[in-house]
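User: Can you predict the 3D structure for this chain?
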Amino acid sequence: MAIFAFLFIFLALVFVYNVISTIVRKYLRGTLTAMDEIPALGLLRGKDLKISGTAVVCGGSIAGLLSARVCADHFETVVMVEPEESVTRPDDHHHDEKSSSVVQKRSRVPQYTSYHGYQAFMTLAVRKWFPNFDHEVVKAGARVVSADTKFHVAGVPIEAPWHQYTANNFPTITTLTRAGLETLLRRLVLATCPNVKYVPGAVIALVRSESSADAIDSVRVRSRDGEESNIPATLVIDCTGPARGGFKWLQDPSFTSTSGTEQQVSPLPLEALKHTYDPKMAYTTCAFDVPPALMSPIKALGFPEDFATAGLLYVSAADPSTDSRNVIIGMKGESSVQFACGGWDVRERMTSIADIKKFLSEMVVLRPVPDWIFRLLELFEQEKVPATYVYARCPPSVYIQYHLAKNIPSNFIAIGDSVLKLNPVRGQGCTKACVEAVTLNSLLIKCAATPTGNTKGTGNLLPKDFSRNFFHLQAKRTGALWSVATYKSEDYAWKTTTPAKGDSLETGAWKRAYGKALLQLAIKDREVSAVFWHAGNWLTPSTELFSPIIILKLAWMQVPGCFGL
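Assistant: Here is the predicted structure, written as structure tokens:
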């Protein structure tokens, strides 16, 4: 009887654990990710159900374009204020269908022509906004490929979860360049959203609402010829990237009431909410434009995939205890093979194939860099394949913790690098902005429509807690990259990093130790590697990496060492 009693209790505990685990995981998925909100993207409110007035998007890069696409479904009018002249000229190459032909870089984006990565979440979301996205990617001279990143740690592969999918439904990413993605999104937004328009110029100030002291009435814009004008705003979105325009505008003494008294408003206490540290990272993007005649010779080298359908080819991250060098090798566009070589305190600038081979040879890895990579470089050298080398010194990482601020205007939000700028090693910047745009869409769905034509005092049309709700969700979903995930703790593994004020390089040491053990486990356990992969692609919350099962597996992995085995 005792055995049956024990079995009953055990099964009961397992049942309770599964119920609680399901509830908790569902809550965390809904709170920490935007996956469940993707199906609601692109659902039209109807002309008479839209929010009255104008959504003003400050900046027209990736974050601005995604924000504009969201706002187009919810507002009568969307205005994108863009300071880059070439972007706002309809006849410029930024609007060309063949995105890969874009050669002019954005002056405000130092890594514009450098290697960029994307995650599976972004493909899922963009397809909802633009159902023909895959077709347009191909027309733009790029590919939609599997999201298998061929990820390695110190040369040791971590398996992608192919065993959990069929070959036809494995999540995908695109090989578009950073310039190509922006160009394609701009063309699709302007083609599908007639209520979105560009205004060339720069936002220089915010103007308070007369009817609501905690809201913005309009934005002041200076045109390229120096003229200033106000654009009424129901919602203001800062998408100015590293310029962080909103952070400056909110503290500017000119942020005053529109009444004739011009009463000064005390600057918001935002400066204390700005946190920064410098990982001192740099990398060189080496791009080879491969001619069609070389396709067959490349395959003969032992190239691991079909060149015509390849995406990422080889990614190896450094083990902080032995090295600081990372390499990413992949296809960009239709026929460009790119090598991104760099890391923490890496000072070498690649200017030749010999430099790349030297960099790869000096990487400290447990398994050698595959021979086909060196053979590929030798072929490029032999055939004198055209190449470009772009060096990028990564700026310091910055986080504006708006969710902790006091009296932020109720109709002001910020998206993308204007809030959180991280090192580019994981290539998550564009997907981070996409997650925030999806979050914005979900909050706007909950906002009631306002009477058509009610544009006076536009700043008070959104709920008073709109900004606060957005920033709190943003902090949980993308802000966690700063504190919970491995970015800062990983950067602090190198003595050359300048830590944030109040931190030391020992900050986050337990996260580094946990992360290293987790990667060691992922190498051996494909179920753990699957969780790692899904979290890295924003398909599941990173809290899955701290599940009881994974913690038990990590503990069991330590048992042999505890007994000297």
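DSSP finds 16 helices and 20 strands in the chain. The first strand starts at residue 51 and ends at 58.
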